[in-house]
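Proteins fold reproducibly. Next comes a concrete instance:

***
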Amino acid sequence: MMVLDTPHGPWHLVDCADKLDWRARLPGASVFDRCAHTLRIARAKRVPIEDLLALALPASWTVNSRAASPVFQRWLQPAAREAWTALVGALAGGVGPWLGFDAAHRDRVSFLAGALVAAGGDLCSLSKVLALLVPEGVPLMDDGALWMLLDAVPRPATADAPTGGVGQLLPMLDAFATASLTHEDALIAVARAHTAAVLDAPQVLDRLMWFDSWGWRHTAAP
């Protein structure tokens, strides 16, 4: 069991292995995890981010991104590809380095994300691409997750109309990084025991947050 510090009080993450196993049976979620791992391997082999972006955009649909294909087309234009490459580079390294960055670095991340959202999409759809390209540091930022970790939006009644804005990006990255590092050993243990996909510690936390904030609605669980 892990206990997250949230605005709602202590949040107990229990039955973690069972929740991940249940999620792995969802077609879209299982494909998303495999795509994230394949893209991680490609990054390690130094495939340029602008080339990986074309694969990550449609892969984000597997976890119900609301971004339409015209948005993806705009995000593949030269200026947007440069912004994506810069943003991924600024977030690379994961949760540990993120908490050590100075204000100028954080402002650059916010500026780049804002520029991409201005070209189309929203924070939620942006995060679903970043969670593929930088899985070691960026969670899915559906309204459920924003409510759970930040209480920045009302508890959602639907996953089809995300309301989170770019202003929640930095606070969410901060809260997610802090929680990931606080529970790193326990998350690694869960990741090692999970055989359906290769996940790192922050990815495990992200999947558990999704289940507890929203995914349980698809089960018979209370």
